[in-house]
Design goal:
heterodimer; A: 176 residues; alpha/beta; five-stranded mixed beta sheet; two-stranded antiparallel ribbon; 5 helices; B: 168 residues; mainly alpha; 6 helices; 0% strand; flat
């Protein structure tokens, strides 16, 4: 009996490991910045290059920081969702225009809509490195105390919004 | 008698042609050769940067090191590390900078931690399980093989065969 059972058990264990492996995405590297203070930045604004915005300006509110670029194709996928989200007024969305040209970035927003309360520019990707950005788009949920609570790697999806991001925002907004 | 060697006309022509051919070959190298552009401004910094980035994973092209990768991401990280070296940061500080932002995954030599125990000892554990199974299998097999003594007739036959062999 054991003679036939042992290979079967070994096979099932192996198959389970492979099955779990199939559902994992090696591109989604968990960020060590979760539950840590969002790196402080002070950057020029996209629309108004003379003005700066710092991450400290948003202390006291829950906000999203969306890393985007006009050269990023996947950003176009998530963009309508971000516009919708911004229109609902649930949460302010801030943009980090990552390694982009000002003119093309502005044109891109004109074409696809501008969900951002403010977009700041990071032409050399330095703030991107501080935030552990390694692909665009990425979206961070930052709470009232300036702590990163969630990082969405890749485009924001309806599923991610409904199941994770919006419930998290609502919960964080209840906290003082 | 003096022997005067007369080269045939065509041979001289060939020689000339060959020289012209060589000149033509060399010409472009003379015209376009320029001073090689230095790859790095500071060789010491570059060396240290490369040594550090050889042990760091490019997160975009995950099986390449940051030293090898031509991805934009790796370019930026190399620039960042160069700047930190120039700012007199130690190797440990630079590695910590990377781990703080990208996690242990960025290291090709991950530290031993509760979360990486399986990574460190998994292969050894698998080997021990396999070795145990092999030992068990061999033991059981030995038990299964019965020691059957040869019969008288078989012994005689074997002896005869051995003798026959020696005869040859």
């Amino acid at each position: 009996m054991m003679r036939y059972l042992a290979p079967l058990i070994a096979f099932i264990v192996l198959a389970l490991f492979l099955l779990v492996g199939l559902t994992l995405n090696p591109r989604q590297v968990p960020s060590p910045l979760i539950d840590k203070p969002a790196p402080i930045f002070q950057l020029n604004q996209l629309h108004d290059p003379d003005k700066v915005m710092t991450s400290q300006d948003n202390l006291g509110k829950v906000w999203l920081l969306n890393v985007w670029a006009s050269w990023c194709v996947a950003c176009r996928d998530e963009h309508p969702l971000l516009v919708q989200l911004a229109n609902t007024g649930i949460v302010p969305v801030y943009g980090l225009n990552y390694k982009d040209e000002r003119t093309t970035a502005l044109q891109w927003l004109k074409q696809f809509g501008d969900p951002y309360t403010i977009s700041v520019v990071d032409p050399e990707g330095r703030v991107g490195i501080d935030y552990g950005v390694y692909g665009v788009p990425e979206t961070y949920v930052i709470d009232k105390k300036g702590i990163i609570r969630h990082k969405q790697i890749g485009p924001v999806t309806v599923d991610a919004l409904q199941k994770k991001i919006i419930p998290l925002i609502v919960e964080l907004q209840r906290q003082t | 008698m003096r022997f005067k060697m007369v080269l045939p006309y065509s041979f001289i022509e060939l020689n000339k042609l060959f020289i012209i051919f060589l000149l033509v070959l060399i010409a472009p190298t003379i015209v376009w050769a320029k001073e090689a552009v230095p790859v790095a401004e500071n060789l010491e910094v570059e060396k240290r940067m490369l040594k550090l980035t050889e042990n760091l994973r490019c997160l975009v092209c995950q099986n390449e090191t940051i030293a090898d990768s031509r991805a934009d991401f790796s370019n930026d990280i190399r620039r960042e590390i160069r700047e930190q070296i120039k700012a007199n940061k130690s190797d440990q500080e630079i590695i910590q900078f990377m781990v703080d932002r990208y996690g242990d995954f960025v290291l090709y030599d991950p530290p031993m931690k509760p979360t990486t125990l399986l990574l460190w000892f998994g292969p050894v554990a698998l080997f021990l399980v396999g070795f145990g199974a092999l030992v068990m299998y061999l033991r059981r097999r030995r038990e299964q093989i019965e020691d059957v003594p040869l019969s008288e007739a078989q012994l005689k036959k074997a002896e005869a065969l051995l003798k026959e062999n020696k005869g040859n």
